[in-house]
Amino acid sequence: MTRFALTLEFDGGPFMGLQRQDHGPSVQQSVEEAVEAITGEAVRMHAAGRTDTGVHALAMRAHVDIEKDIDAFRLMEGVNAKLRPDPIAVTACEVVPDDWHARFSCVGRAYVYRIANRRAPLTLERGRMWQVAAPLDAAAMHSAAQHLVGCHDFTTFRSAHCQAQSPLKTLDRLDVERAEGTGGSEVRIHAEARSFLHHQVRSMVGCLALVGMGRWSEDDMRQALEACDRQALGLNAPPDGLYFVKARYEGEAP
Amino acid sequence: MTRFALTLEFDGGPFMGLQRQDHGPSVQQSVEEAVEAITGEAVRMHAAGRTDTGVHALAMRAHVDIEKDIDAFRLMEGVNAKLRPDPIAVTACEVVPDDWHARFSCVGRAYVYRIANRRAPLTLERGRMWQVAAPLDAAAMHSAAQHLVGCHDFTTFRSAHCQAQSPLKTLDRLDVERAEGTGGSEVRIHAEARSFLHHQVRSMVGCLALVGMGRWSEDDMRQALEACDRQALGLNAPPDGLYFVKARYEGEAP
């Protein structure tokens, strides 16, 4: 048995999320079927994160175990060929030790959230960003975001369907910057933590947008966090703008 | 009568190009119908360039003449609402003098061509870039490109369907750079001229890719130009990676 680590890029639009579902297509199902088509083996894929419907990935990490003697390059090329026309690509593939686990060995996860801050509807970036027409104050958003950095009870920013045992998480980074993108004036939010609760990034982004619009103060953000109550959530941002960008493992650069 | 200048952003994928066609959807038809839905007037749109099927625009300029008394902001908002679900957006709209013409007053046009230089199939950038699997030498491409800058007979790089009276054009800029994008390692080509022949940018990019792959030398590029013969063309790049990015008018910054 050989364990292969895969780096996956995908457009989350057509999928009911990364994890296999009974009621619709998933990234996991597509990749498992492509691996089976190449190796003749039914495999189970494990991934660093469980992204939702419509959430994208630039570099999700995952692993599969394969009995057949196949080298990493041929596996990657074959799986990519079988994945067509699904918008999923294996951008890297390598042999890893048997005790390396894409989910349990992962010590850091990074997301980017992209907001198109403009009145005009999206064209090229449709499904790739959240369009917010009201002008956003990115500096105010960044300042309010700093109240969320550190170890907190994130119950307010957690989906009712979250399966994590504890609402306590340590948020290492939540930076907001204004950038120029093809979608026009873009506000980009960078979030990093060892792990996140279900909907945590989208919930934090939704509330930051309220701050950016001037509808919430920095203090409202602090109070929402301290409330530890899902009812205190101001707004949950749509999945379109969310990208899983990095999974970090022991011995890898931060 | 008031003349309005429109700045258009569009995904060229679903259209048979910018110009109105008998046999399929066009950007011109969609915009003209949206303006008519708002004003009740049949209008004709004139644009700075005539992009092909699948070619995108970040900031195409165009104009329409309207009799009805309507302000620029209301026109833009109304047209954007009527354009849904077509992936076209009016990102700016302003009143211009009656003798300002989107096509004939335009003194400079700029395109960007995006190549995804990677083996993995495209996902999020599908239809937005040209995927080239062979490693490209961007420095060699840039060097070869400089042979095309200046005033030349561009017959080799001109479509058989080109309607321009002369094959002589002055190319002001053809820069090749390597950049990091969401599509992985990206090679980006910037082309600027007062005007271009039909397929000129895609034809130049196709030959530059041959240089990047090491299949053409700098001298092959020079000879292709000097041949003044469409048969000397090495390769015509697909439309997916081509973006119209800027139209410049007298009195505007370069």
Automatic annotation (TrEMBL), chains A, B:
HAMAP family: TruA (MF_00171)
Pfam families according to UniProt: PseudoU_synth_1
Record carries keyword tRNA processing: yes
Subunit structure: Homodimer.
Amino-acid positions noted as binding substrate in the UniProt annotation, renumbered to this chain: 111
Xref: InterPro entries: PsdUridine_synth_cat_dom_sf (IPR020103), PsdUridine_synth_TruA (IPR001406), PsdUridine_synth_TruA_a/b_dom (IPR020097), PsdUridine_synth_TruA_C (IPR020095), TruA/RsuA/RluB/E/F_N (IPR020094)
Name used for this protein in its record: tRNA pseudouridine synthase A
Species this chain originates from: Croceicoccus naphthovorans
Enzyme class: isomerase
EC number per UniProt: 5.4.99.12
Family listed: Belongs to the tRNA pseudouridine synthase TruA family.
Catalytic activity: uridine(38/39/40) in tRNA = pseudouridine(38/39/40) in tRNA
Positions of the Pseudouridine synthase I TruA alpha/beta domain: 10-104, 144-250
Lineage, highest ranks first: Bacteria, Pseudomonadati, Pseudomonadota, Alphaproteobacteria, Sphingomonadales
GO biological process: tRNA pseudouridine synthesis
